Amino acid sequence: MPTLDDLIALALAAGREIMAVRAAGFDAQTKDDGSLVTIADQRAEGIIEAGLAQLAPGIPMLGEEAVAAGRIADCSGKFFCVDPLDGTRGFAKGGDEFTVNIAFVEDGAPTMGVVYAPATGELYAGEPGKALAGKCHPQTAQLLAPLTPIHVSATLPLQPRIVASDFSGRNERTGAFIKALDGATTHASSSIKFCRVAEGAADLYPRFGDISEWDAAAAHAILKAAGGGVMLLDGSPLRYGGKNGDFLIHGFVAYSGEAAKQAALTAL
């Protein structure tokens, strides 16, 4: 079985490849589902898939680009859930808000995860009993200092801090949720929103609308390791493995602790 350090090393290697593609220049193409893909997505997933096959032969990998190519992994037991480049649209526009996401899932629950933002160097990782954060050099992906432990906020402030994306975070349901809680909003990119809750910088991350499992699994594992959790909009736990016949999550709320969860359920 791969260790958390193994998954971190793979995420950093994928990040280096993404930044190399950016430096060399690239074109974006549109997939059948209307989303964008670049050579950086494909090369990064290739690095991760090859690395996981070496580290854990026999454990399938559910990858965004593999699924797009029609290669669907068996997700009934243990599997890896990978988005090699979460935020391709922003990456293609020259922005910095994109991440590499690698998760290990057991019986529908993400138990190990790494989220790495190559352009900013932000790195988050988690496994049961341990959640970590650190900063890497964006060009070399070398750690600038040892990873440090992170934990969710121990208390819920009177005005909960709610993190949302600039794009999907501005829909009507998100606005109503924030208003119901009299929340203070902050913004973050892609999977980093979960990590803001995990490190105690936010209390809730609501998402109304569909998102793919590989966009959430790695950061979910980190948040869980930091003491938080993620629930579906009906309050039930978020499970992975395409139980609906697809790999879509139809909305969720990530929360820092029990008080935040109950406040979110009331607002919902």
Structural commentary:
By secondary structure, the protein is of the alpha+beta class. It folds into 2 domains: 4-149, Fructose-1,6-Bisphosphatase, Chain A, domain 1 (2-Layer Sandwich), CATH 3.30.540.10; 161-267, D-Maltodextrin-Binding Protein, domain 2 (3-Layer(aba) Sandwich). 33% of the residues lie in helices and 29% in strands. The chain contains 8 helices and 14 strands. The protein has helices spanning 4-24, 39-55, 64-68, 88-92, 172-181, 192-198, 213-225, 258-267, and strands at residues 28-30, 36-38, 61-63, 78-86, 99-106, 109-117, 122-127, 130-135, 148-149, 161-164, 184-187, 204-212, 229-232, 248-255. The strands form 4 sheets. Strands 3-4-5-6-7-8-9 form a 7-stranded mixed beta sheet, with helices on both faces. α1 (4-24) packs antiparallel against α2 (39-55). The chain is globular, with a radius of gyration of 17 Å. The N and C termini lie far apart (39 Å). The model has no long low-confidence stretch (mean pLDDT 89).
